[in-house]
Amino acid sequence: MKGIRGLLEKDFRLILRQGGNLFMVLALVAIFFTIMGKTGATFIAVYIPSVMAMYSGNTISYDENGHGYTYLFSLPVNKEMYVREKYIFSFIMTVCGWCMGVICAGIAALINLEEVLNLEMLAMEVITFFVVQAVAGIMIAIRLRFEGEKGRIVLPIAILIIFAICYTTGSILKTNLELKESILNVIGGAGDLEIAIALIVLSLLVWYASYKYSMRVMRKKEF
Hints:
Elements: H1 2-18, H2 20-34, H3 40-56, H4 59-64, H5 68-72, H6 79-111, H7 119-145, H8 148-175, H9 177-189, H10 192-220
Helix pairs in contact: 1-6, 2-3, 2-6, 3-6, 3-7, 6-7, 6-10, 7-8, 7-10
């Protein structure tokens, strides 16, 4: 645990030193959307934890520079600890972003009477937390699999592929009305609670699969 605590301290110090501009941008975005219309609170509550979780994966690129891996693994730290710490750090950053998002959304609801902060929105926030964790896990796996410039190229490509799949799926559903109606009937037959549980379970499975894959990738690396 000492090794993981040391890695967490390193990453937090790195975020505080390098992430000042990020936090400033997040604050400005939160203030801007606080005085906006009906979509303000919802956007803030989803945007902030998403950015915080994604940014946490950037610490891997700093570790790659200047033979950072060689130095880290000369300390009482092994590859399993390193991967475990990245997922713990991502989780902590997501929790911090989630709390910030909920607080900012609450402030927006107090300032703008048109904003609504109810149990339905909080439930959506809980689902968002797990989905963001799954996406952050995928990003960590990609960063570990493709080092340096390859990682910077592959990551946007992966995001584009996800958007392309979503767009293609939407186009297919628009043209195939029978398929769309059958899917809507299945979704309509399930309650909101069942759908929420399904999304959370799916997110956890994706997160766990990315964690196992990251472990396997890291074990194969030679430094």
